[in-house]
């Protein structure tokens, strides 16, 4: 059963949390909270010419355009791939759609990849 995200105006703009995923050399941070598309500074992202937004059919229609606009000043090209929503789509076939988007758009190792959504999207 897929949950329905709240509309953007329903999120508070404070109380954001930063979580460090400690994987040694592959460590990264996750910022969780409301109002991030307006308040977060994308200038701090690693410099790359391309960014790929990975999202799903539930969250994507609500937030992809806003995130693309926020990323555009910092990346020459902003791409997105929208995947089906639901745990049953956590498969190699779905993961390959992300790889295909990266390859088709000639993304290099330096490309920024942003997971827009939680659950399966974050896991992939």
How does this model look, in words?
The protein has a domain at 43-123: Rossmann fold (3-Layer(aba) Sandwich). It is globular, with a radius of gyration of 14 Å. It is of the alpha/beta class and 124 residues long. 15% of the residues are buried. It has a three-stranded parallel beta sheet with strand order 4-3-5, sandwiched between helices. It is built from four helices and five strands; from the N terminus they run E-E-H-E-H-E-H-E-H.
Ordered list of secondary-structure elements with their pairings:
Blueprint: E1 17-21, E2 28-32, H1 36-39, E3 50-56, H2 60-71, E4 77-83, H3 92-104, E5 112-116, H4 120-123
Parallel strand pairs: 3-4, 3-5
Antiparallel strand pairs: 1-2
Radius of gyration: 14 Å
Strand content: 15-25%
The CATH architecture assignment of the domain at 43-123 turns out to be 3-Layer(aba) Sandwich
- N-end to C-end Cα span: 19 Å
Question: What is the count of helical runs?
Answer: 4
Listing every helix as H and every strand as E from the N terminus to the C terminus, the arrangement reads EEHEHEHEH
Strand order of the largest sheet: 4-3-5
**Rounded mean pLDDT score:** 82
**CATH fold name of the domain at 43-123:** Rossmann fold
- Broad shape: globular
**Low-confidence residue ranges:** 1-13
The CATH class of the domain at 43-123 is identified as Alpha Beta
In helices, the fraction of residues equals 25-40%
Described by strand count, sense and barrel closure, the largest sheet is: 3 strands, parallel
Classification by helices and strands = alpha/beta
Q: Give the total of beta strands.
A: 5
């Amino acid at each position: 059963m897929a949950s329905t995200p709240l509309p953007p105006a329903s999120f508070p703009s404070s109380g954001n949390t930063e979580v460090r995923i400690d994987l040694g050399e592959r460590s990264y941070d996750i910022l969780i909270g409301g109002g991030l598309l307006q308040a977060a500074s994308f200038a701090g992202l690693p410099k790359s010419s391309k960014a790929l937004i990975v999202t799903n059919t539930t969250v994507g229609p609500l937030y992809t355009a806003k995130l693309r606009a926020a990323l555009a000043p910092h990346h020459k090209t902003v791409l997105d791939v929208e995947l089906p929503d639901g745990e049953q789509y956590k498969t190699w076939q779905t993961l390959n759609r992300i790889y295909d988007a990266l390859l088709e758009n000639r993304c290099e190792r330096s490309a920024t990849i942003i997971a827009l959504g939680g659950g399966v999207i974050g896991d992939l």
